[in-house]
Design goal:
The structure is a homodimer. Chain A is an alpha+beta fold. Chain A has helices at residues 5-16, 22-29, 33-45, 78-86, 112-123, 146-155, and strands spanning 49-51, 55-56, 65-73, 91-97, 103-109, 128-141. The first copy, chain A, has a four-stranded antiparallel sheet. In chain A, helix 1 (5-16) packs antiparallel against helix 6 (146-155) and helix 2 packs across helix 3 (33-45). At the A-B interface, helix 1, strand 1, strand 2, strand 3 and helix 4 of A face helix 1, strand 1, strand 2, strand 3 and helix 4 of B. Strand 6 (128-141) of chain A pairs antiparallel with strand 4 of chain B, so a sheet runs across the interface. Chain A binds a DNA duplex through helix 2 and helix 3.
DNA sequence: GGTGAAAGGTCATTAAG
DNA sequence: CTTAATGACCTTTCACC
């Protein structure tokens, strides 16, 4: 189920230079083109690679403020809350969690002032009792996966 | 600085079917091929589209457990903590935040038991006073950007 | 709009588990 | 025996000028 060392190198190469094709990748890796193609097909089939969609930066869209909100939910309202938050564009991500928190969501906003509007819109829903928000100041480690890929590849015998 | 409606449609189309090229995209959108190409170049230049790297699923790599840890940092140890956490592959993301929390990080692990090991490794660092962890149970809204793109595109005149 | 190149597929051969 | 890698060939499609 895991990935081997060659899979890891393919993923790393594609992450570094997404524009290169299968042929160029095979050249750089020193393997046959068909091999790279077969590996990629397998990685997609296994769900390891979900796709190659565009990575959009919310800040460049005009939403430079990011925050994480911990939501406390009324008993039995979880389903309604999810359905509601799906409809809020500024909610980029939503998780249900253990702990008192119940839910954790990632928000973006146009400014700190605008964040208040977003939070009001989130908390305004009936099923949400209260929200505790942490505004992101810096992002020393942006969402990454390569180190984990390397570890997973190395652990495969 | 924002994006217009056509930009939005281009991004949406590429998100839905990343494999299609510029030519096929222009056909579907009913615009000239050069237009799509120019728009894409501009979106990349503006930083709206950061790239087309592979989206890797940690679960498929053997790390199905996700957690968010709020870290409390010793005064003046922030820089050291960042440098340390960068070296931990299971740390997928790290933010410094407002509030008592100081830092928020996203972790993955091979199992709930393995999560303990990861947390120990994180908290084991000297500059970290303590960690409060929320384990993710469900993910009703996986990281998404399209609704925000649509809103940003609609708001542009 | 034309052209060189690459993607994607199939095949037979070879190697390794 | 099964799985994977390889190099060859072919057709369609795209990117670039």
């Amino acid at each position: 189920m895991g990935i081997d060392e060659l899979d890891g190198r393919i993923i790393k190469l594609l992450a570094d230079e997404p524009r290169i094709g299968v042929l160029e990748a095979s050249r750089r890796l020193g393997v046959a083109r068909g091999t790279v193609q077969a590996r990629l097909d397998r990685l997609r089939a296994n769900g390891v690679i979900r796709g190659f969609g565009p990575q959009v930066d919310p800040a460049a869209l005009g939403y430079p403020v990011t925050a994480f909100a911990t939501l406390e939910i009324k008993q039995g309202q979880g389903t309604d809350v999810r359905a509601y938050l799906v409809g809020v564009p500024e909610v980029l991500e939503l998780h249900t969690t253990t702990g008192h928190g119940d839910m954790l969501c990632r928000l973006v906003a146009r400014s700190n002032a605008d964040l208040q509007r977003v939070i009001d819109r989130v908390v305004g829903f009936d099923g949400i009792v209260r929200a505790s928000t942490a505004i992101v100041m810096e992002n020393p480690v942006p969402l990454r996966i390569i180190p984990l890929v390397e570890q997973a590849a190395a652990e495969e015998t």
